[in-house]
Specification:
six-stranded parallel sheet, Rossmann fold, 9 strands, 41% helix, alpha/beta, 2 domains, binds pantoate
Length: 295
Protein backbone atom coordinates (compact mmCIF):
# COMPACT_ATOMS: atom_id res chain seq x y z
CA UNK A 1 0.00 0.00 0.00
CA UNK A 2 1.36 3.42 -0.94
CA UNK A 3 0.65 6.25 1.50
CA UNK A 4 0.24 9.86 0.31
CA UNK A 5 -0.08 13.00 2.44
CA UNK A 6 0.10 15.41 -0.48
CA UNK A 7 -2.89 15.90 -2.77
CA UNK A 8 -0.59 16.96 -5.58
CA UNK A 9 1.61 13.86 -5.31
CA UNK A 10 -1.45 11.63 -5.23
CA UNK A 11 -2.90 13.36 -8.28
CA UNK A 12 0.34 12.89 -10.27
CA UNK A 13 0.39 9.19 -9.35
CA UNK A 14 -3.27 8.67 -10.25
CA UNK A 15 -3.01 10.58 -13.55
CA UNK A 16 -0.42 8.02 -14.59
CA UNK A 17 -2.67 5.14 -13.51
CA UNK A 18 -5.62 6.60 -15.42
CA UNK A 19 -3.48 6.91 -18.57
CA UNK A 20 -3.31 3.12 -18.40
CA UNK A 21 -7.15 3.04 -18.35
CA UNK A 22 -7.31 1.56 -14.87
CA UNK A 23 -10.63 1.91 -13.05
CA UNK A 24 -10.12 3.81 -9.80
CA UNK A 25 -12.38 2.96 -6.84
CA UNK A 26 -12.48 5.33 -3.89
CA UNK A 27 -13.46 4.72 -0.25
CA UNK A 28 -13.48 7.93 1.84
CA UNK A 29 -13.37 7.36 5.61
CA UNK A 30 -12.68 9.17 8.86
CA UNK A 31 -10.56 6.27 10.15
CA UNK A 32 -11.13 4.13 13.26
CA UNK A 33 -11.76 1.43 10.69
CA UNK A 34 -13.88 -1.65 11.35
CA UNK A 35 -15.39 -4.51 9.36
CA UNK A 36 -17.95 -2.11 7.87
CA UNK A 37 -15.18 -0.06 6.22
CA UNK A 38 -13.37 -3.20 5.11
CA UNK A 39 -16.56 -4.37 3.37
CA UNK A 40 -16.38 -1.11 1.36
CA UNK A 41 -12.74 -1.81 0.46
CA UNK A 42 -13.71 -5.35 -0.57
CA UNK A 43 -16.55 -4.06 -2.75
CA UNK A 44 -14.17 -1.52 -4.31
CA UNK A 45 -11.55 -4.25 -4.93
CA UNK A 46 -14.10 -6.30 -6.87
CA UNK A 47 -15.29 -3.35 -8.98
CA UNK A 48 -12.02 -1.49 -9.67
CA UNK A 49 -8.36 -1.96 -10.63
CA UNK A 50 -6.89 0.46 -8.07
CA UNK A 51 -8.47 1.14 -4.67
CA UNK A 52 -7.83 4.47 -2.94
CA UNK A 53 -8.91 4.91 0.68
CA UNK A 54 -8.74 8.24 2.51
CA UNK A 55 -8.57 8.77 6.25
CA UNK A 56 -9.47 12.30 7.29
CA UNK A 57 -11.43 13.42 10.35
CA UNK A 58 -13.20 16.27 8.59
CA UNK A 59 -13.61 19.26 10.94
CA UNK A 60 -16.29 21.00 8.83
CA UNK A 61 -18.87 18.23 9.26
CA UNK A 62 -18.83 18.30 13.07
CA UNK A 63 -21.32 20.67 14.63
CA UNK A 64 -20.19 19.63 18.11
CA UNK A 65 -16.55 20.38 19.03
CA UNK A 66 -16.62 17.68 21.73
CA UNK A 67 -17.61 15.07 19.15
CA UNK A 68 -14.72 16.18 16.89
CA UNK A 69 -12.21 16.05 19.74
CA UNK A 70 -13.43 12.65 20.97
CA UNK A 71 -13.65 11.06 17.53
CA UNK A 72 -11.52 7.88 17.76
CA UNK A 73 -8.16 8.02 15.95
CA UNK A 74 -6.47 4.62 15.48
CA UNK A 75 -4.07 5.20 12.61
CA UNK A 76 -1.65 2.28 13.18
CA UNK A 77 -4.45 -0.28 13.46
CA UNK A 78 -6.20 1.29 10.43
CA UNK A 79 -3.06 0.84 8.31
CA UNK A 80 -2.78 -2.82 9.28
CA UNK A 81 -6.43 -3.46 8.39
CA UNK A 82 -6.04 -1.73 5.03
CA UNK A 83 -2.85 -3.67 4.24
CA UNK A 84 -4.63 -6.94 5.06
CA UNK A 85 -7.54 -5.92 2.82
CA UNK A 86 -5.03 -5.21 -0.01
CA UNK A 87 -5.96 -1.56 -0.33
CA UNK A 88 -3.62 -0.04 -2.95
CA UNK A 89 -3.39 3.61 -1.88
CA UNK A 90 -4.04 5.44 1.38
CA UNK A 91 -4.47 9.21 1.35
CA UNK A 92 -4.10 10.91 4.75
CA UNK A 93 -4.01 14.68 4.22
CA UNK A 94 -3.47 17.29 6.94
CA UNK A 95 -6.32 19.77 7.46
CA UNK A 96 -4.22 22.47 5.75
CA UNK A 97 -3.85 20.26 2.65
CA UNK A 98 -7.61 20.36 2.04
CA UNK A 99 -8.84 23.62 3.58
CA UNK A 100 -7.83 27.24 3.40
CA UNK A 101 -7.84 29.25 6.60
CA UNK A 102 -10.83 31.22 5.24
CA UNK A 103 -12.88 28.06 4.66
CA UNK A 104 -12.38 26.95 8.25
CA UNK A 105 -13.21 30.42 9.57
CA UNK A 106 -16.34 30.57 7.37
CA UNK A 107 -17.48 27.26 8.84
CA UNK A 108 -17.18 28.69 12.36
CA UNK A 109 -19.14 31.81 11.50
CA UNK A 110 -21.77 30.50 9.08
CA UNK A 111 -22.50 26.95 9.99
CA UNK A 112 -25.32 26.65 7.46
CA UNK A 113 -23.70 28.47 4.56
CA UNK A 114 -24.64 26.68 1.37
CA UNK A 115 -22.10 28.14 -1.08
CA UNK A 116 -19.18 25.92 -0.33
CA UNK A 117 -18.12 24.14 -3.49
CA UNK A 118 -15.45 26.53 -4.79
CA UNK A 119 -17.78 28.64 -6.85
CA UNK A 120 -20.46 26.02 -7.47
CA UNK A 121 -23.46 25.80 -5.22
CA UNK A 122 -25.45 22.64 -4.67
CA UNK A 123 -29.04 23.02 -3.58
CA UNK A 124 -29.92 20.05 -1.42
CA UNK A 125 -33.42 21.41 -0.76
CA UNK A 126 -35.59 19.48 1.65
CA UNK A 127 -33.17 16.52 1.64
CA UNK A 128 -31.10 18.20 4.36
CA UNK A 129 -34.00 19.68 6.30
CA UNK A 130 -34.97 16.38 7.95
CA UNK A 131 -33.38 13.85 10.31
CA UNK A 132 -29.56 14.25 10.43
CA UNK A 133 -29.79 17.58 8.60
CA UNK A 134 -32.28 18.94 11.12
CA UNK A 135 -30.41 17.62 14.16
CA UNK A 136 -26.87 18.46 13.02
CA UNK A 137 -26.99 21.92 11.38
CA UNK A 138 -24.32 22.34 8.72
CA UNK A 139 -23.30 18.66 8.90
CA UNK A 140 -24.16 17.77 5.31
CA UNK A 141 -22.59 20.92 3.92
CA UNK A 142 -19.37 19.83 5.61
CA UNK A 143 -19.71 16.27 4.24
CA UNK A 144 -20.43 17.49 0.71
CA UNK A 145 -17.61 20.01 0.95
CA UNK A 146 -14.97 17.43 1.86
CA UNK A 147 -16.29 14.71 -0.46
CA UNK A 148 -16.32 17.14 -3.40
CA UNK A 149 -12.72 18.07 -2.58
CA UNK A 150 -11.72 14.39 -2.48
CA UNK A 151 -13.57 13.70 -5.73
CA UNK A 152 -11.66 16.54 -7.44
CA UNK A 153 -8.31 15.22 -6.19
CA UNK A 154 -8.86 11.48 -6.73
CA UNK A 155 -11.25 11.74 -9.72
CA UNK A 156 -12.42 8.17 -9.09
CA UNK A 157 -14.59 6.24 -11.53
CA UNK A 158 -16.48 4.71 -8.61
CA UNK A 159 -16.98 5.66 -4.96
CA UNK A 160 -18.23 3.43 -2.16
CA UNK A 161 -20.31 4.46 0.87
CA UNK A 162 -22.01 2.54 3.68
CA UNK A 163 -25.78 2.40 3.78
CA UNK A 164 -25.72 3.07 7.53
CA UNK A 165 -25.42 6.75 6.59
CA UNK A 166 -28.52 6.54 4.42
CA UNK A 167 -29.11 10.30 4.22
CA UNK A 168 -25.42 10.97 3.51
CA UNK A 169 -25.67 8.68 0.48
CA UNK A 170 -28.67 10.61 -0.83
CA UNK A 171 -26.82 13.92 -0.33
CA UNK A 172 -23.73 12.65 -2.17
CA UNK A 173 -25.80 11.28 -5.03
CA UNK A 174 -27.53 14.65 -5.38
CA UNK A 175 -24.19 16.50 -5.27
CA UNK A 176 -22.64 14.28 -7.95
CA UNK A 177 -25.70 14.79 -10.15
CA UNK A 178 -25.87 18.56 -9.73
CA UNK A 179 -22.11 19.03 -10.26
CA UNK A 180 -22.13 16.61 -13.22
CA UNK A 181 -19.32 14.55 -11.74
CA UNK A 182 -18.73 11.38 -13.78
CA UNK A 183 -18.56 9.15 -10.69
CA UNK A 184 -20.65 6.06 -10.02
CA UNK A 185 -21.84 5.93 -6.39
CA UNK A 186 -22.19 2.52 -4.75
CA UNK A 187 -24.19 1.86 -1.58
CA UNK A 188 -22.86 -1.04 0.51
CA UNK A 189 -24.99 -2.92 3.05
CA UNK A 190 -24.79 -2.22 6.80
CA UNK A 191 -22.44 -4.60 8.60
CA UNK A 192 -23.64 -5.55 12.08
CA UNK A 193 -22.01 -6.89 15.23
CA UNK A 194 -23.22 -10.30 16.46
CA UNK A 195 -25.88 -8.61 18.65
CA UNK A 196 -27.23 -6.64 15.66
CA UNK A 197 -25.58 -3.30 16.50
CA UNK A 198 -24.65 -1.50 13.26
CA UNK A 199 -20.87 -1.19 13.02
CA UNK A 200 -19.66 2.35 13.62
CA UNK A 201 -16.39 3.97 14.70
CA UNK A 202 -18.38 5.51 17.55
CA UNK A 203 -19.15 2.04 19.00
CA UNK A 204 -15.59 2.12 20.39
CA UNK A 205 -16.78 4.65 22.93
CA UNK A 206 -19.62 2.47 24.31
CA UNK A 207 -19.10 0.61 27.58
CA UNK A 208 -19.71 -3.17 27.56
CA UNK A 209 -23.11 -2.57 29.19
CA UNK A 210 -24.06 0.10 26.63
CA UNK A 211 -23.00 -2.16 23.76
CA UNK A 212 -25.38 -4.82 25.09
CA UNK A 213 -28.19 -2.33 25.50
CA UNK A 214 -27.60 -0.97 21.99
CA UNK A 215 -28.90 -4.21 20.48
CA UNK A 216 -32.40 -2.82 21.08
CA UNK A 217 -31.88 -0.41 18.15
CA UNK A 218 -31.59 -3.05 15.43
CA UNK A 219 -34.07 -5.31 17.26
CA UNK A 220 -36.63 -2.50 17.02
CA UNK A 221 -35.85 -1.88 13.34
CA UNK A 222 -36.19 -5.58 12.47
CA UNK A 223 -39.49 -5.77 14.38
CA UNK A 224 -40.79 -2.69 12.56
CA UNK A 225 -39.97 -4.35 9.24
CA UNK A 226 -41.87 -7.47 10.26
CA UNK A 227 -44.86 -5.61 11.67
CA UNK A 228 -45.44 -3.58 8.50
CA UNK A 229 -47.86 -6.22 7.24
CA UNK A 230 -50.16 -5.73 10.24
CA UNK A 231 -49.68 -2.10 11.39
CA UNK A 232 -50.09 1.34 9.82
CA UNK A 233 -47.07 3.64 9.40
CA UNK A 234 -48.30 5.78 12.29
CA UNK A 235 -48.64 2.70 14.52
CA UNK A 236 -45.18 1.46 13.53
CA UNK A 237 -43.63 4.78 14.42
CA UNK A 238 -45.21 4.95 17.85
CA UNK A 239 -44.39 1.27 18.51
CA UNK A 240 -40.69 1.98 17.82
CA UNK A 241 -40.65 5.24 19.76
CA UNK A 242 -42.30 3.59 22.80
CA UNK A 243 -39.88 0.65 22.71
CA UNK A 244 -36.77 2.85 22.48
CA UNK A 245 -37.96 5.43 25.02
CA UNK A 246 -38.68 2.65 27.52
CA UNK A 247 -34.93 2.18 27.93
CA UNK A 248 -33.89 4.86 30.49
CA UNK A 249 -30.31 5.09 29.18
CA UNK A 250 -31.51 5.96 25.69
CA UNK A 251 -32.22 9.55 24.68
CA UNK A 252 -34.17 9.24 21.42
CA UNK A 253 -33.49 12.03 18.88
CA UNK A 254 -35.79 10.78 16.16
CA UNK A 255 -37.42 7.69 14.73
CA UNK A 256 -38.72 8.43 11.25
CA UNK A 257 -40.35 6.44 8.47
CA UNK A 258 -39.58 8.21 5.21
CA UNK A 259 -39.69 8.00 1.45
CA UNK A 260 -36.35 6.33 0.65
CA UNK A 261 -35.67 8.75 -2.24
CA UNK A 262 -36.79 12.15 -0.97
CA UNK A 263 -36.30 11.22 2.72
CA UNK A 264 -39.44 13.14 3.58
CA UNK A 265 -41.52 11.54 6.37
CA UNK A 266 -44.58 9.55 5.31
CA UNK A 267 -47.73 8.70 7.23
CA UNK A 268 -49.16 6.16 4.80
CA UNK A 269 -47.69 3.28 2.76
CA UNK A 270 -48.97 4.69 -0.53
CA UNK A 271 -47.00 7.93 -0.07
CA UNK A 272 -43.73 6.24 -1.12
CA UNK A 273 -42.64 3.59 -3.63
CA UNK A 274 -39.84 2.60 -1.26
CA UNK A 275 -39.60 3.50 2.41
CA UNK A 276 -36.87 3.49 5.02
CA UNK A 277 -37.06 3.60 8.84
CA UNK A 278 -34.26 5.72 10.32
CA UNK A 279 -33.28 6.24 13.93
CA UNK A 280 -30.85 8.45 15.84
CA UNK A 281 -30.32 8.35 19.59
CA UNK A 282 -27.86 8.93 22.34
CA UNK A 283 -26.71 6.09 24.54
CA UNK A 284 -24.62 7.58 27.33
CA UNK A 285 -22.40 10.10 25.56
CA UNK A 286 -22.44 8.30 22.24
CA UNK A 287 -24.70 9.27 19.35
CA UNK A 288 -25.76 6.30 17.21
CA UNK A 289 -27.73 6.05 13.97
CA UNK A 290 -29.22 3.06 12.15
CA UNK A 291 -31.83 2.32 9.50
CA UNK A 292 -33.67 -0.41 7.63
CA UNK A 293 -35.32 -0.36 4.22
CA UNK A 294 -38.92 -1.42 4.79
CA UNK A 295 -40.21 -1.95 1.24
O1 LIG B 1 -19.03 8.65 6.33
C1 LIG B 1 -17.96 9.19 6.70
O2 LIG B 1 -17.10 8.55 7.29
C2 LIG B 1 -17.72 10.64 6.37
O3 LIG B 1 -18.89 11.37 6.45
C3 LIG B 1 -17.04 10.85 5.00
C4 LIG B 1 -17.91 10.39 3.85
C5 LIG B 1 -15.72 10.10 4.97
C6 LIG B 1 -16.77 12.35 4.79
O4 LIG B 1 -15.93 12.86 5.77
Amino acid sequence: MIIFNSAQQLKIYLDNVKDQHYIVGFVPTMGALHRGHISLINAAKIQSDIVVCSIFVNPTQFNDLNDLQNYPRTFEADCKLLETAHCDILFIPEVSELYTFEELELKKEKIEDKSWTEGKTVDFGSLVEVMEGAHRPGHFNGVAQVVSKFFRIVEPNKAFFGQKDFQQLAVIRKMVKQLNMPIEIFACPIIRESNGLAMSSRNERLSAEERNLASIISKTLFEVKELQTTKTIVELKSFAEDQLKAEPKIELEYFEISDADSLQPITDYNQAATAVACVALKLGNVRLIDNIVLY
